[in-house]
Structures are given as C-alpha cells and as structure tokens.
Write a structure and sequence with these properties.
The chain has two helices and nine strands. A hairpin with a 3-residue loop joins β8 and β9. It has one domain: 2-Layer Sandwich (Ribosomal protein S3 C-terminal domain). Helix content is 19%, strand content 34%. The strands form two sheets. Strands 5-3-6-9-8 form a five-stranded mixed beta sheet, with helices on one face. Strands 4-1-2-7 form a four-stranded antiparallel beta sheet, with no helix packed on it. By secondary structure, it is α+β, with helices and mostly antiparallel strands.
C-alpha cells in the first residue's frame, strides 16, 4: 500500500510504502496547516493520524537576513529524538489499536526540538511505529530546500515487539 502526505505550507513531501497494515505513523507540522493524506484508491491507508499544530499569530520582526544567525543543531536534535523514543517505548508492547502513540511521540519531539533550537526554522516531525515481523517497509521522502541551511535528523529505536523511527526536518524561513 502507498500513502502520500503533502503539506500545503511546507516543501516537505513524504511518501510511505508499507507491506503491512500494522504500521502507525504521525506527521506533525509546526507553523502551518495540513491536508489530509491522499491514499491510493486501491488500498487502505497505513497512516493512522496526521495532525498539525495551527499557526499561532506571532509575527516575527524582519531581520533582512538571507542566512540564519545559527544553524540547526542536528546532533542535539538527534539525541532528543533518540531519548524520546527510548524513554517512551522501553516497556511498551505493540498494540495496533493504539493510534495515538505516534502522534503523541511526534508532538513531544516537536516541542522539545522547538525548545532547543534557533528561531526562524519551520519544523516537521515524523514518527512511525510498527510491529516487528517479517513484513518489509520502505520509506522515502523528498523536499525542495536550500542545502546550505535546511537539514534533517533521524533516530530509530526497537524493543522486543516494535520498532520506531523519528525524523525531524528543519527548513529555514527567510
């Protein structure tokens, strides 16, 4: 099955291929609105929930900068993702009915990343949780971005019954 998730306000384009209907995922977008996932008409969607935090009215002053004052701290964010996944999933048994877990993890990662980082970066937090089995999973994403300033980081975790991958994309807003 194939599920495509696009956000109207971010350049991020995420495509999820799954051979198993037991995969759950969540995509959290900071500072933008989202569109519901467009699923292939021949297969049910593997994405359990897609959520977005509504944009808050907090205008930023013009800085007249074309580059960020400080770059996105990828190593620190990778530690945040790794810590959130390992601390929250350590004793969790996979339950296919628990559709809120990926969304909760993505939101927690987004909040902790926002607390770390430089301003003027749009963040996209993506978490996928799946059951350990013999099923295969392939994940790909494509974005239009500035290679000098935009970046991403990822971390994975697994226990005896599940695996999880968390990805945070950071896109500089000029």
């Amino acid at each position: 099955m194939t599920t495509t998730v696009r956000s109207a306000t971010t350049p991020a384009h995420v495509r999820l291929h799954s051979a198993s209907s037991t995969t759950r995922s969540a995509l959290i977008v900071t500072g933008g609105h989202h569109r519901e996932p467009e699923a292939a008409s021949h297969a049910p969607s593997a994405v359990s929930r897609v959520a977005s935090t509504p944009a808050k009215a907090h205008p930023q002053e013009n800085t007249y900068r074309i580059s960020p004052a400080e770059h996105f701290p990828c190593a620190k964010v990778q530690e945040v993702v790794r810590d959130v996944l390992s601390s929250r999933l350590r004793d969790v048994e996979y339950d296919p009915r628990d559709t809120g877990l990926p969304q909760e993890l993505a939101e927690l990662i987004k909040q902790k990343t926002k607390a770390l980082g430089p301003s003027r970066y749009k963040l996209v937090s993506f978490v996928m949780v799946g059951q350990k089995s013999t099923a295969t999973l392939s994940f790909a994403s494509r974005c239009s971005w500035n290679e000098q300033y935009d970046n991403y980081t990822e971390a994975s975790y697994e226990n005896k019954s599940l695996y999880a991958t968390g990805i945070v994309y950071s896109v500089y807003q000029e």
